[in-house]
Amino acid sequence: MTAVHSAPAARTESRPAGEGSEKGLPVRQLVANGAAEPIVEEVRREPPGRGEVRLRAAWSLVSPGTELHYLDRSARTGERFPLGYCSAGVVDAVGPHVPGYAPGDRVIAMGWGEAVHSDAVTVPFRLCRRVPDALDLADAVVAGLAATAVHAVDRATLEPTDEVAVIGAGMVGQLVAQTAAAHGVPVTLVDVRPERLRTAAALGLATADGANFLEETFEEERPVGARGGRCVFLCGTGDAGDTIAAAARWAGRAPGRPRLVGVGRFAAHIDFSVDLGNLDIRYAARCGAGYRDASYARGLRDVTAPDGESTVTENLQRALDLIDSGAVRPSAMGLPRFPLERAAQAYAQLRERPAHPAVLFAYGQPEGSPTS
Question: What was the pLDDT predicted at 3?
């Protein structure tokens, strides 16, 4: 059981409440606090300010790569980090200058340090989207992380004749694979642990055993008559030098444009020479233009995304639309559900790279078993 610790109240400054409750809410919040396991502390969630909404959470989603990274960093340095950035629930208060939202709206919300693992969160309105009535909030909450996949696929500039390999079947890898497949291109999901591929068939994805992909998956001859390019999304962690070299060989054997798109946290040494061949190497960070820009997120200024890309607000909506249409299927990804009090157990499991790629935290409702 995770201990509950008292902490100084969060955001205690006086702020206009707008519509809804004018009082701060006592809530629980998950924090990295100098150890390998998180703690649950009690804070007060103040009313929303300009350009913000406050929502009572029903679900939050763990982003394993990012959150384990910050837990490890906290253990090394003693820094404190509120964990989480994907939440879904019901709006209970709206700050001034917030168009399009009202108390009672079902919404998703995202934002590092804002849409945290907590009973209630206060989030800039441009990092929220309204959830369709028929869509389960437990599925909708995945849109926060799926927006990263939408952005990564935009960065890849896929063509209809391309084929795609996604290396790493964690949460981001599975979302990238489903998002790329929604573009109508063939996608192969690759992982060194076969149990991570167990839900791929339900997601409509082909798979390859990562233990053999250096010798087999990336060395197959290109089918006669093929004319498109090949793109590899690198969604793993750790040392990726050999993987990148093999991916470059595979992508380079296609007649079209060869591309590598990094999405995860990894390190690699690359020998740039004519032997590498023509190769586009790109990295997709975060989830679109305007993310981590407080002025944009609160409606104080606008941003323009590069050609072929979108703002974080647009990508959140696109991710939500993919889930609502069934192109991205969180319910088939086998995500266990935990109460916040069992957070330490949830993160300990994720460190072992289990078959499930992430977990959901439930607020105010009974714990459920993993979906199938």
Answer: 38
